Amino acid sequence: MRKAIVFLLLAACAPEGFPDDPVFSDPATLENPGIAPLDPILARANEENATENTEEELQARGESLRSRAEAVREQSP
Hints:
By secondary structure, this protein is an all-alpha fold. The protein is 53% helix and 0% strand. It has three helices and no strands.
């Protein structure tokens, strides 16, 4: 019973059109997976910061984390 449940779960996870036995399928019949375009990501990289103080906020968080890590180091033997 357990094997049947696992098989059904794995079969449900396969994408549509995926061959039942991809290991022994003819490689010429298998499709390459699609890759999402990178253009939107690269376009956002050139934009200004989303908030006015993003860089300062991140620097403050980094300083806080560094001071907390230093305090932990000082307390450890």
